[in-house]
Amino acid sequence: MLADDEIARGREDFSSNMAAYCAAFDAIAADPNNTLYVWDHEGTAMGCLQLTFIPGMSYHGAWIAKVEGVRVDRSLRGLGIGEQMMEAMIAKSRARGCKQLQLTTDKRRVDAQRFYARLGFDASHEGMKINLI
């Protein structure tokens, strides 16, 4: 699912670097502030994401939750799976006492931006990244 569209397909390559994905999985699994979630139906993956809890100094030392790698199987989009996934992450973040739940989405993913806005996410900041490798 990580490479199910044109944007991600150019970035993800499981065939040539599976060891790197396995190492990342192991690191995430070992970190109590990181969790990978997979939604499945009868053993078939429908969606996945990563939830990370980040301690911070801003907002009086508040914790921030961050969601990344949100994917829903292309054939299952529009059925409410993504909404269920995000509502579950909002609930987990609240239960953890987080001040905010943040996410980023590629500027080219206009449908995703509308989806997140419908769930109450506000495009309040301009995110910036620098590629290091």
Automatic annotation (TrEMBL):
Pfam families: Acetyltransf_1 (PF00583). Keywords: Acyltransferase, Transferase. Signal peptide: none annotated. Residues 1-133 form the N-acetyltransferase domain. The keyword Plastid does not apply. It comes from the Bacteria. This is N-acetyltransferase domain-containing protein. The lineage of its organism: Bacteria, Pseudomonadati, Pseudomonadota, Alphaproteobacteria, Hyphomicrobiales.
